[in-house]
């Protein structure tokens, strides 16, 4: 998508207190490594020339998921107008890895940052036809049920987004 | 329909119960819902195409409910093809039995099965937790609000924020007592951390995850769960068995149909652009299950990572999925022309948030067995029976503020009116019926609550009161009469009664020469001012209050119109039906609507404009008449009737000279200068706001050199007869006090509705005229 769309996405994320970094694919691994807090678990990144850094366990055990501080997953696409990340429920475990650890680092291709929810649903139609599952995750987990707004309830209290500017 | 199991409350009992809620829960509820209401308004305003979005959402629901039987079969096919099961449960017992069986089969040998749940009002409706616990199942709510209620053994006070009636301090006390932490909990942060860790463990150990579903896409079997905490994600993904419980009305045809709902539900519920997590699951999902009992086992079994080519025919999933679709009265609601609309409800809570009475007492007062807020009347009548709806239905005053809030445009006040009508008709005849018989030329059966019958026929009483004034006024204020009125009609003796005028507006108008004299006055005014020659004629509608009680505002309206060159007539017209409508007396209202239309048909044919002072009567013409008159009659009256200030503003916009009116003092020479104008506090009428008619009055005031400050309170709390009723007097005053606090410092206070004016006069202890009385030219 256009840089404008990524710009819009960045502004929305800012309001949600989520940081965004734009990086070339070649540097992605290194930037992911600096965005995590160990121990970290992750799922395979389906972007050409991008792989998880060594510090991210990509074949974790159940126990690793439970004790990880950071989870690194790709986002299948993102919706700029709301700052939403579309996380697919892949067999590799994107869903548990993006929800259990306290910090979620999401990696998304710039070309997958869509302007609005309508464009998002164009993609979802194909996803659901394939019987896939997708979560729109927007910002940090939150609750006001205990009398005041608190972040990081059941889901991550911290989210970072890495946009691959040449993918 | 359920049999009445307990005797109905007396008025005093109802009053005591509501007083208790005002004192214990009112503040906390008000703090939450008034903020959500404000944010919802802002979110709607910030969305360009909000009207189109609401209409689209509504039409999808209309279509889905229309095709419901077909959609049930479609989703059954889709879910089964995906490898899950669909069970359509007839009622609560059926659903509970099925779910218990599923859960029972999942326990490890020698252990009690355990279940984690995400928030679901539908499972509250069927009392699923009790049913499971009776079977020896450990059940844990994981939504923090629901969990607090589970620990407190309390019930939801709001369909979205179930524990909002509890303050942080109360929750801290509860948790300190129950869990005895080393360091007592104090902050929301500490409480939330504890809850997360405690519930996290429950989720890891659970055998089954039970969720609700906000929407279910029939064609793919995809269900949408909307949360901010993330607990629904964990409940659905962690245990290998997932049961989703949803009312049948949650089905929508296709993925495309989901879009407007995902777009609007957070906006209407909390004013967020979108919720944190919109989980769209097509179960059984591809996500690996998490078995924390085996920490060393790999998350992903060999050969099933995301990149493997064989993921399409991956090894048999170890996931199990059940979709339980609940009928429990819904399919009958679908056949009920009046209740059917309830099924479009997406349970966002916006109707509760926008309701002044709900803000005051919360869902424990304004709610039935399970549901709360305005739409609960429809839900309770449909799923638990009319008696459950009857307990709180009268708290809906028909103010209509929820109409603007509802994302699927449900006519919630109408559902309340209809159910009230049905409740009235089912009631036993009362012993005092003879007392009001002579006063009540209505079309209702016996057995109607006497107070309702009196207020529904208030026009007749007012006519009599006026004919016998001032004696009627003196008599009415004597204590034996007040005691009798309270005992028989339930009119609270603390409330001032209206003072009837001996000379009605219609009589006054006749005495000064009637329509002919008005024409001459208007012509003279036009000649004198060489103002714009606007060729209109007005029929001023003498509503009950303007005609018999508050004649001054009617006179001000006549004078203002004439000064701007508009001839007026004030014929003796029938009642509008507003009064019986507010008491749920639909047949009486229907009859009055026909009479009224018959009486003005000729004026409409002659091209005259019907101008109304009392906003609630105008609202009857413009909203409820759609259901009472043939379409063409309704449209003609709607298109040719106006609120008085709206009409005057229209005249001014079309060239009439605003300087002929009484302008604000800061305007000096009549030209509103750069100064903001003379401050004036203005409370528009609730129904007037829903018609979009607050703005013309504000604009007119500004044109005339005033700087209006408008109220943020949705309703004055008086709402016609509501504030007179003994059981609701204190709720009414509570709402009124909030309004008064906004206006305390204002020098001039005006209000468009009679009841609003009365209420403000009571709480502010000063005179509160209609804006037209301020604007009317000096004699
Ligand atoms: S009736 Fe409308 S506003 Fe009320 S909960 Fe249902 S969808 Fe929301």
UniProtKB/TrEMBL annotation, chain A:
InterPro entries attached to this UniProt entry: FTHF_cligase-like_sf, LUD_dom, NagB/RpiA_transferase-like
The organism's place on the tree of life at top rank: Archaea
Gene3D superfamilies: NagB/RpiA/CoA transferase-like (3.40.50.10420)
Pfam families in the record: LUD_dom
Start and end residues of each LUD domain: 65-164
UniProt-listed SUPFAM superfamilies: NagB/RpiA/CoA transferase-like
Protein name per the record: L-lactate dehydrogenase complex protein LldG
UniProt source species: Natronorubrum texcoconense
UniProtKB/TrEMBL annotation, chain B:
Pfam assignment, any one: Fer4_8
Stored InterPro entries: 4Fe4S_Fe-S-bd (IPR017896), 4Fe4S_Fe_S_CS (IPR017900), FTHF_cligase-like_sf (IPR024185), LUD_dom (IPR003741), LutB/LldF (IPR004452), NagB/RpiA_transferase-like (IPR037171)
4Fe-4S ferredoxin-type domain ranges (all copies): 335-366, 388-415
The protein's name in its UniProt record: L-lactate utilization protein LutB, contains a ferredoxin-type domain
PANTHER family cross-referenced by the UniProt entry: LACTATE UTILIZATION PROTEIN B (PTHR47153)
Annotated organism of origin: Natronorubrum texcoconense
GO molecular function: 4 iron, 4 sulfur cluster binding; oxidoreductase activity
Biological process, per Gene Ontology: lactate metabolic process
Keyword entries, A-Z: 4Fe-4S, Iron, Iron-sulfur, Metal-binding
Residue ranges, annotated region (Disordered): 285-318
UniProt-listed PROSITE patterns: 4FE4S_FER_1, 4FE4S_FER_2
């Amino acid at each position: 998508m256009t840089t404008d769309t990524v710009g819009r996405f960045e502004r929305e994320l800012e309001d949600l207190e989520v940081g965004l970094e734009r990086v070339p694919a070649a540097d992605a691994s290194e930037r992911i490594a600096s965005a995590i807090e160990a121990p970290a678990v992750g799922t395979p990144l389906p972007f050409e020339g991008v792989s998880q850094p060594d510090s991210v366990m990509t074949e974790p055990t159940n126990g690793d998921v439970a004790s990880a501080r950071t989870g690194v997953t790709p986002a299948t696409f993102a919706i700029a107008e709301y700052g939403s990340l579309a996380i697919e429920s892949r067999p590799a475990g994107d869903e548990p890895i993006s929800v259990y650890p306290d910090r979620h680092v999401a990696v998304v291709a710039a070309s997958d940052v869509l302007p609005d929810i309508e464009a998002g649903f164009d993609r979802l139609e194909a996803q659901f036809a394939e019987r896939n599952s997708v979560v729109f995750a927007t910002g940090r987990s939150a609750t006001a049920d205990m009398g005041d707004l608190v972040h990081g309830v059941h889901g991550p209290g911290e989210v970072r987004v890495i946009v691959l500017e040449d993918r | 329909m359920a049999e009445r199991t307990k005797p109905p409350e007396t008025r005093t009992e109802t009053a005591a119960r509501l007083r208790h809620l005002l004192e214990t829960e009112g503040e906390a509820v008000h703090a939450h819902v008034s903020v959500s209401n404000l944010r919802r308004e802002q979110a709607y305003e910030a969305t360009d195409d909000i009207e189109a979005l609401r209409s689209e959402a509504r039409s999808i629901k209309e279509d889905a409910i229309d095709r419901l039987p077909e959609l049930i079969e479609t989703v059954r096919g889709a879910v089964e093809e995906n490898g899950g099961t669909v069970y359509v449960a007839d009622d609560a017992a059926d659903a509970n039995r099925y779910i218990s069986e599923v859960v029972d089969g999942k326990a490890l040998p020698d252990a009690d099965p355990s279940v984690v749940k995400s928030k679901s009002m539908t499972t509250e409706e069927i009392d699923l937790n009790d049913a499971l616990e009776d079977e020896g199942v450990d059940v844990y709510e994981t939504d923090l609000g629901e969990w607090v209620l589970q620990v407190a053994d309390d019930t939801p006070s709001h369909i979205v924020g179930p524990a909002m009636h509890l303050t942080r301090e109360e929750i801290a006390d509860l948790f300190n007592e129950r869990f005895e932490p080393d360091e007592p909990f104090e902050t929301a942060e500490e409480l939330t951390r504890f809850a997360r860790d405690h519930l996290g463990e429950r989720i890891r150990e659970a055998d089954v995850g039970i969720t609700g579903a906000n929407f279910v896409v029939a064609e793919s079997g995809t269900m949408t769960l909307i949360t901010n905490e993330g607990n629904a994600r964990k409940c659905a993904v962690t245990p290998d068995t997932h049961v989703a419980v949803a009312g049948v009305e949650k089905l929508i045809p296709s993925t495309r149909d989901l879009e407007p709902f995902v777009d609007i539900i957070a906006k209407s519920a909390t004013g967020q652009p979108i919720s944190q997590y919109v989980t769209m699951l097509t179960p059984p999902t591809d996500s690996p299950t998490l078995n924390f009992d085996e920490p060393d086992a790999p998350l992903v079994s060999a050969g099933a990572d995301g990149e493997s080519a064989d993921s399409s025919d991956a090894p048999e999933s170890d996931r199990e999925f059940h979709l339980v679709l609940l009928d429990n009265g819904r399919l009958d609601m679908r056949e009920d022309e009046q209740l059917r609309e309830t099924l479009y409800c997406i349970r966002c809570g916006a109707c509760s948030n926008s309701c002044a009475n709900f803000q005051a007492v919360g869902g424990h007062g304004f709610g039935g067995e399970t549901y709360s807020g305005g739409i609960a009347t429809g839900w309770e009548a449909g799923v638990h029976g009319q008696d459950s709806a009857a307990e709180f239905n009268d708290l809906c005053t028909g103010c209509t503020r929820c109409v603007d809030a509802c994302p699927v445009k449900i006519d919630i006040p109408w559902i309340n009116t209809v159910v009230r009508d049905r409740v009235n008709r089912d009631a036993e005849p009362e012993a005092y019926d003879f007392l009001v018989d002579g006063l009540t030329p209505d079309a209702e059966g016996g057995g109607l609550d006497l107070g309702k019958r009196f207020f529904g026929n208030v026009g007749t009483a007012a006519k009599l009161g006026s004919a016998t004034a001032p004696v009627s006024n003196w008599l009415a204020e004597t204590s034996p009469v007040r005691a009798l009125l309270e005992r028989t009609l339930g009119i609270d003796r603390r409330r001032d009664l209206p003072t009837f005028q001996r000379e009605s507006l219609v009589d006054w108008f006749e005495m000064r020469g009637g329509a002919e004299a008005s024409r001459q006055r208007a012509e003279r005014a036009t000649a004198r001012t060489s103002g714009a020659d606007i060729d209109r004629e007005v029929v001023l509608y003498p509503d009950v209050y303007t005609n018999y009680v508050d004649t001054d505002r009617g006179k001000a309206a006549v004078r203002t119109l004439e000064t701007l060159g508009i001839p007026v007539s004030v014929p003796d017209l029938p009642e509008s039906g507003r009064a019986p409508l507010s008491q749920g007396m639909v047949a009486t209202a229907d009859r009055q609507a026909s009479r009224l239309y018959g009486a003005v048909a000729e004026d409409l044919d002659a091209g005259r404009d019907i101008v109304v002072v009392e906003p609630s009567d105008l609202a009857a013409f413009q909203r409820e008449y759609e259901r009472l008159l043939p379409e063409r009659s309704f449209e003609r009256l709607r298109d040719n009737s106006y609120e008085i200030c709206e009409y005057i503003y229209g005249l001014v916009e079309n060239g009439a000279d605003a300087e002929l009116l009484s302008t604000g003092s800061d305007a000096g020479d009549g030209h509103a200068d750069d100064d903001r104008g003379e401050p004036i506090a203005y409370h528009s009428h609730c129904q007037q706001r829903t018609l979009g008619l607050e703005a013309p009055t504000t604009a007119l005031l500004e044109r005339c050199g005033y700087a209006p400050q408008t109220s943020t309170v949705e309703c004055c709390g008086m709402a016609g007869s509501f504030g007179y009723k003994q059981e609701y007097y204190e709720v009414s005053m509570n709402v009124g006090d909030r309004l008064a606090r906004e206006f305390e410092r204002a020098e001039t206070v005006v209000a468009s509705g009679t009841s609003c004016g009365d209420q403000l006069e009571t709480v502010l202890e000063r005179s509160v005229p209609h804006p037209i009385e301020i604007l009317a030219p000096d004699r």
